[in-house]
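Bug #77: duplicate submission created two jobs. Keeping one. Sequence:
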Amino acid sequence: MKVRSLQESLTSLRSFFDDTPLDSEDSSISGNSVEFNKLEIREYARVLGDNPACSSGPPVSLGWEHSPEDIEVSIDEYEKRNPYKRLPKELLLPRTTREQMLRDGGFTRSDVVRATKCATLLKKSRKKSNSRIGTDRMEERIEGVVRKGKKLIYPLSEPQKEFLKWEEALKGAEICHNS
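Kept job's structure:
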């Protein structure tokens, strides 16, 4: 769907959802601004995570389960109650805090240890993959040079070339058939 203006976009969306046109009288959008007046806050369960970016200890994630009631608050009220904006480093949870949260949430010590080990293994795997990025490209180039060199030194006869083509085609067919 292509639209030429914000008004045309909003009109087409409104009519798509409820078949009523968007009049400028009932719109809270004026010009190029949008207004928000309330927040709906939903609380989710904290669960053991698998994020390897966690510096140490168990990662904590949000689960799929949430509280049955949403909390509605006006934006002005929310801003009054929470005037302080936290810095990114203040959003990080120390290991002990995460461990306590999980214990309070009903996770056992062995659950926490298992999640910590899993995150550590993922972190090591990512580190290994990242360290190989440059070497993989170099290995591919070396293999290509070796192949081209072999072709120059040991050229194949036409029947050998034909045989290799058939062999590659059969391998491709086997891979497709087995997957």
